[in-house]
């Protein structure tokens, strides 16, 4: 049985993450949450995480351990506004991918669920 990673490959994840971080870097709500001097590193970590989650190499876990997403994001003030801005950037990046629509839907459903789980502050 093939995985999403098998279907779209590393290049699609690279495109997704590159487009996403281009949008994040100019977003006034969420850009301050990202390391200005290491956006490339943040992008690489997201790419490794997504590739692993979707059936690709296990580089993320090998280099960083268990993902523990909520714990890793606990230091950031993530309310629904921040979540919505993150999702807006990611929605545009997913929409731009040149992959089958059913795969976009699967990616989006996961990303939306994960974003909702990261909210850690009341509005």
List the helices and strands and how they pair.
Elements: H1 4-24, H2 39-53, H3 59-64, H4 69-73, H5 80-95, H6 101-118
Instruction: Give the assembly state of these chains.
Output: single chain
C-alpha geometry: globular
Strand content: under 5%
Helix-strand sequence: HHHHHH
Radius of gyration based on Cα positions: 14 Å
Number of domains: 1
Briefly, what CATH class?
A: Mainly Alpha
Share of residues in helices: 55-70%
Please characterize this protein's 3D structure.
With 123 residues, this protein is an all-alpha fold. It contains 6 helices and no strands. Helix 1 packs antiparallel against helix 2, helix 1 crosses helix 5 and helix 5 runs antiparallel to helix 6. The chain starts with a helix and ends in a 5-residue tail after the last helix.
Features:
123 residues; 6 helices
Describe the structure in brief.
This is Hemoglobin. The protein is mainly alpha-helical. It is 66% helix and 0% strand.
């Amino acid at each position: 049985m093939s995985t999403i990673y098998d279907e779209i490959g590393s290049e699609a994840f690279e495109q997704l993450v590159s487009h996403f971080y281009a949008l994040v870097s100019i977003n006034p709500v969420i850009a301050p949450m990202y390391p200005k001097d290491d956006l490339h590193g943040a992008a690489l970590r997201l790419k490794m995480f997504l590739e692993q989650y979707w059936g690709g190499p296990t580089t993320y876990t090998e280099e960083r351990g268990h993902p523990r997403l909520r714990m890793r994001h606990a230091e950031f003030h993530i309310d629904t506004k921040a979540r919505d801005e993150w999702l807006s950037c990611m929605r545009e990046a997913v929409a731009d991918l040149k992959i089958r629509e059913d795969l976009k839907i699967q990616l989006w459903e996961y990303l939306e669920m994960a974003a909702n789980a990261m909210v850690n502050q009341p509005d």
